[in-house]
Structure formats: C-alpha cells, structure tokens
Amino acid sequence: MMPVTGGTINMMEYLLQGSVLDQSLESLLHRLRGLCDNMEPETFLDHEMVFLLKGQQASPFVLRARRSMDKSGMPWHLRYLGQPEIGDKNRHALVRNCVDIATSDNLTDFLVEMGFRMDHEFVAKGHVFRKGIMKIVVYKIFRILMPGNTESIEPLSLSYLVELNVVAPAGQDIVSDDMRNFAEQLKPLVHLEKIDPKRLM
C-alpha cells in the first residue's frame, strides 16, 4: 500500500554519495558506460539557486531552483528535500522526502515575493547515467564569482561529486539493497556512502 498525502504519493529519495578526483574521471565514466543501460549518458550544465525562508523554527525552510543553461526552452525546476531519515541502520542509503516540479520562468521572482531570500548559487556541469530506476550523476560544482553572472565561474574543487539516487514511493527500502550492490561494482574508483549532511556542517 502506497502512503498517500493530499492526493499525491509520498515520494522519497534514496541517496549514496562520493567523490572522484579529476584525474580519475575518465576511468569512472568508462566503468559507468559498461555497467549502465546501453545508451550514451546525458550531459548537463545547470544553474542552481538555493532559497531560504526564515521563520520561528530553528532551521530555515529551504527550496532549490534549477534551470538548464545548455538546453533552451527547458522549464525551471523547483525542488524540496526533507530532513534525512538516518535512524534506520539497516538501510544502505540515506532517505529523505523529495518533491520536484517543473515551473514557469518567473520562479525566482515568485519565491522572492513569497519572502524567500537567495542564500547561494552555483553552476553544476556533468553527466547523467541510468541503470533501471537508478540515476547516477557525476558532476563538478563551479563557484559564481559575480552574483547573477553564470559566465564568470571557477571550479570549487579538484574533484567531481558522484551521486547514486532513486526516487520511489515511501516504504520501498528494497531499492537501497540494489543501490549498495551497484555501488560495490564502482569500487575502488569511487566509494559511495550514506552521508549525513549534518555531519558536514
């Protein structure tokens, strides 16, 4: 039975993360081409803005607005990620609520009118692979040197982030077993782990 909230299915993101140094990127991409579905991986170049709404609660409400910079006519995407459910040690992946919707072009103006404040922005450039319902994203984050100018960027580090994720209805914890098995095949090129974001703060 799928949990339903307000007429919609409660979707969860199952996530494993790691990183790979620039010089190991080609080896990892080669391995992923062999392991993933038989299609050329997509490339992307996205601009993401993170908005905060401060209220009475201790931590602000966070929304992410993302748009494609290399594919014209694509809609903006608004994303909400809930707090990770990290208590269950039997799960092999981090699990959190996930809402992702396509929106109109005036998304950022709308968020500001609603009282949100932009906290930070960045450019992400990379590759997307697919293996069944799993999505593997390998990307580099670029710092924006002049606010609002996505042409003026520099790499944030000498490595690429690697994320393995599945978006599925709540209660589908079996997918984390498949994710762990797939992650094992990427070792020792990259070690994908269940990372608690609070540990990084």
Descriptive report:
The protein is mainly beta and 201 residues long. The chain has a single domain, classed as Hypothetical Protein Pfu-838710-001, CATH 2.40.320.10. 14% of the residues lie in helices and 48% in strands. It has 3 helices and 11 strands. The chain has an 8-stranded antiparallel beta barrel. Strand 5 and strand 6 form a beta hairpin. It starts with a strand and ends in a 17-residue tail after the last helix. The relative contact order is 0.26. It comes from Rhagologus leucostigma. Belongs to the Mediator complex subunit 18 family. One of its GO terms (cellular component) is core mediator complex. It is found in: Nucleus.
Brief write-up:
Keywords: Activator, Nucleus, Transcription, Transcription regulation. The protein has 201 residues and is mainly beta.
Which terms would index this structure?
201 residues; mainly beta; Hypothetical Protein Pfu-838710-001; eight-stranded antiparallel beta barrel; two-stranded antiparallel ribbon; 3 helices; 11 strands; 14% helix; disordered N terminus; Mediator_Med18
**Helix and strand string, N-terminal first?**
EEEHEEEEHEEEEH
Biggest pleated-sheet summary = 8 strands, antiparallel, barrel
What is the tally of helical segments? 3
CATH class: Mainly Beta
What's the architecture, going by CATH? Beta Barrel
Please name the CATH topology.
Answer: Hypothetical Protein Pfu-838710-001
Work out the radius of gyration.
Answer: 18 Å
Compute the separation of the termini in Å. Answer: 36 Å
Helix and strand composition category: mainly beta
Strand order in the largest sheet: 3-7-6-5-4-8-9-11
Report the helical percentage: 10-25%
- How many DSSP E strands? 11
What percentage of the residues does DSSP assign to strands (E)? over 45%
The CATH homologous superfamily is named Hypothetical Protein Pfu-838710-001
What best-fitting shape do the alpha-carbon axes yield? globular
Mean pLDDT across all amino acids: 89
Protein name: Mediator of RNA polymerase II transcription subunit 18
Pfam families: Med18 (PF09637)
InterPro entries: Mediator_Med18
Keywords: Activator, Nucleus, Transcription, Transcription regulation
